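Let us begin with a simple case.
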Amino acid sequence: MNLKQELQTLNDKLDKCRRKLAAAEQRGDTTIIMQFKKEIATVTKRIASIKSQQTRQLSKEGSEVMSLAFNRALTKAEQADMGKLKKSIKGLVVVHPMTALGREMGIKAVTGFAPAKF
């Protein structure tokens, strides 16, 4: 299971536990309340761990892309025919500013990174 799926299932589990905790608090069932509080704490800890792991992966990927020798913003015409552009330039990596990688790298425009000038 990849990190994104695991994070989603953990968030679902956390939501479910919080709803059950609220129901148990209405009933006044102390043993169930303690059980769900403990489970919520463990799930929250695991979610934080996965988010930090995702951040590390993005940072690593961003540094690999930034280490490519050449980069420049792509024109609208190049963006429109991305398939042709990628076929003509070997090793081209295109990063959009609205993706997680683009936000991590802090780019403001659609940028192409390549080992050679294009």
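The second case is a distinct protein. As before, the sequence precedes its structure tokens.
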Amino acid sequence: MTTPRTVLVTGGNRGIGFAIAEEFLAQGHRVAVTARSGQGPVGSLTVQADVTDAASIDAAFTAIEAELGPVEVLVANAGITRDGLLMRMSEDDFADVIDTNLTGAFRVVKRASKGMLKARYGRIVLISSVVGLYGGPGQVNYSASKAALVGMARSITRELGARGITANVVAPGFIETDMTAALPEAQQAEYKKNIPAGRFATPTEVAKVVAWVGSDEAAYISGAVIPVDGGLGMGH
């Protein structure tokens, strides 16, 4: 039986984040989600916060700590896309994606690390993407932000590894979400041709991997990149 932990999932109001929060709840943990709008799954504590605003992150953590106790498992999932070809991509479109996906992860990890260091226990899971290491046309900003999370996790591991804190990266491939459902049929078929598994993943398949990496059982795994992509990236 795993010890019930206080878990925070950023961007837990939809898609993969919502499924991750559901999975931790199903395993008996105390779960909080941050969202700019909307709600996390039933049974979770939803706190409004924006990962681009350090003050709102601090306030969210303070509220979660008061209600559920210090955050022991952090899943940095909040992310945005602003796709466009390099030649047409504005600096704002580049900077906004970096600020949310990368600096946003830094903000929440920094705030969570205080309690983790005190407890000498912590699980940090950064949600990257197959695109982070495999690349994707029209996604210079997104790919850069997601690749950078690998360096972040590995540096955190070297800094905090001796304190019972792990930092890992989960890199999902194509997942059945509103985002992929909106793609034209022909494009979906083309993507599936390149995936050895021949299909997209369900959000639950990603959530179960995240929950395991965030568990007591994964104490000796840190600085790892775990792909959940049906073989698309092949470790790239």
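The chain has eight helices and seven strands. The domain at 6-227 is CATH 3.40.50.720 (Rossmann fold).
Keep these points in mind for the review questions at the end of the chapter.
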